[in-house]
Amino acid sequence: MSLGKTFLNGIFSANPIFRLAIGLVPALGITHLAINGVYMGVLTTIVLLAVVLVKIVANLFLSRDVQLFVDCASLVVFTTVLYRLMGVYHPDVLVQLGIYFPLIALNGFILQRLSNDQRPITRIVDALGMGIGYTLALTVIGMIREFVGLGQIFGISILHGSLAPFSLAATVPGGFIIIGLLIALFNALTGKEVEQRE
Amino acid sequence: MSKGLELFAHCIVTHNVILFQGLGIYILLNYTKTLAEAFKAAVMMLATMLTASTIMWAAESALPISFGMRLPVILLIALLSGLLWHKLLAPYHKSSGSYNFLPIFVNSALVGALLNTYQYDVSGVNIIGYGFFCALGYGLVLIIMAGIRQRLELANVPKPLRGIPILLISTGLLALALMGFRF
Q: Are B119 and A99 a contacting pair, CB within 8 Å?
């Protein structure tokens, strides 16, 4: 597969949320505001890229037995460093993301991308595509939930009070229903079903 | 939060880790195809959660963890307890087929529950109780959803909704049913 196809693969045909249904925890927990989706997507992409780069370097020098520990350690270290940096420069974002920020270290789609055994440049492009696809998915979910739940998008009021917002959409149970419907819509548009573990 | 009944209601009903915090969804989607599989996942989660919360209680009692060190310590405790149980049960996993059980032992519900102990001001030996009830609530939802999933297989669900979408919607409806108990 060419690099361009690999990149687009992560955004459309292997989108982590809509096609693979992994990394759904932040999508349910913090996307009641669209901006949270953008923050979480970008932060997850940064950690993913950093961990993939470490993995590529580790592959050159370390045996496979040690690599699991290197993966775990790099995930913990990068998440912690980013957490501390955000605490210093953007503490408000840290408060908004709450316990879901530290959970980047256990994000299913980061762990899945680590098992990718392609050549280094393909892995980096794949990680970038997946990260952008994940960010876009979180943002779309956030925009829909924010619009339905609060009548605004990115904090800008759309309905101007002309219609009462359906506040359930901003809660986790509402998130389950909206994400379920969005995945169904994606299935209907592509004519495929979500790939599940065998 | 220190009373047993309060912890029980908080963890199982009003702040259930799956239904009201959206944690541990991967297990819900991938390990609830049968009741036996869901029960197995629930027991494994209970064992890991008890181990992790006991280690955390011991670490908290021995040396108070500063704010800056909480995150790495919690992540390390979760990873260690998960890998420990994964290693201990490795022979059983090999004999039972090719399933990868590592995601059950190390998942977001485990770390999320440990992080919540700070948010809800749970301290001392209550950390173990909190971990136990969170895992119990988590396991109950897994088993209920496995039952619902088996019934859904017999239902005539429109094609785009089959599989993950209908499962997510059913989970949302189950959460809505329990939302009435939130106080």
A: yes
